[in-house]
């Protein structure tokens, strides 16, 4: 069983770097990693960062675990020391993390929840922003990508109404240093036009 070996221990959430066997310098969190390609690439190219990658969808978890270890070596294959998985609602993890503990937060192609009655399920939401602002350290980054026009308009509106994060205009091409994602590839193939935001947690006390 690979998952128990790589699952982030909730008991470590108040001191999250202690949940890693390497000696990472800072904590990163990815919400909704899907098949996990983006999270895996981040961890591989930034060994000094500790990444907790969150996903609730079992198929996504299986896809990630299947790539990390060969089928016949689930109990023994070495795992990335700077990657841990959270196989539950990411919001439950975020609520447990200490203030200013996250250096980078990643939200790549979140579910758009287009119906009005599902609005509350959108991850970019005024109700969740104070919690995200609490855990992202001043100067820390929050990357968001979306290909859904309704969600893009929603992100623009929500971000215009807050001052926790500085919000430059989004890029229309994936910026250098952002690994691709599986969902993004599908969106581009279908002719949709993603937007890519890179927010910075404001340094002034807000
Ligand atoms: C549209 S998919 C995008 C997956 C991946 N980021 C990509 O770009 O290929 C959104 C993913 O977020 C996951 N997700 C949604 N809400 C979540 C939450 N609260 N905690 C953890 N994962 C979540 C879903 O299960 C789904 O796999």
Discrete helix count: 7
* Helix percentage: 25-40%
Bound molecules: S-adenosylmethionine
Q: CATH first level: which class? A: Alpha Beta
Uncertain regions spanning at least 5 consecutive residues: none
Specify the biggest β-sheet.
7 strands, mixed
Based on Cα principal axes, name the global outline: globular
Strand content range:
15-25%
Tally of distinct domains: 1
Task: Give a description of the structure.
- With 206 residues, the chain is an alpha/beta fold.
- The chain has a single domain, classed as Vaccinia Virus protein VP39 (Rossmann fold, 3-Layer(aba) Sandwich).
- It is built from seven helices and seven strands; from the N terminus they run H-E-H-E-H-E-H-E-H-E-H-E-H-E.
- Strands 3-2-1-4-5-7-6 form a seven-stranded mixed beta sheet, sandwiched between helices.
- Helix 2 links the parallel strand 1 and strand 2 (49-54).
- S-adenosylmethionine is lined by residues 31-34, 54-57, 60, 89-91, 108-111, 181-184.
Chain-wise SSE layout:
Elements: H1 3-6, E1 26-31, H2 37-45, E2 49-54, H3 58-68, E3 83-86, H4 90-96, E4 102-108, H5 129-135, E5 136-146, H6 149-160, E6 165-166, H7 182-189, E7 195-201
Parallel strand pairs: 1-2, 1-4, 2-3, 4-5
Antiparallel strand pairs: 5-7, 6-7
The structure holds S-adenosylmethionine.
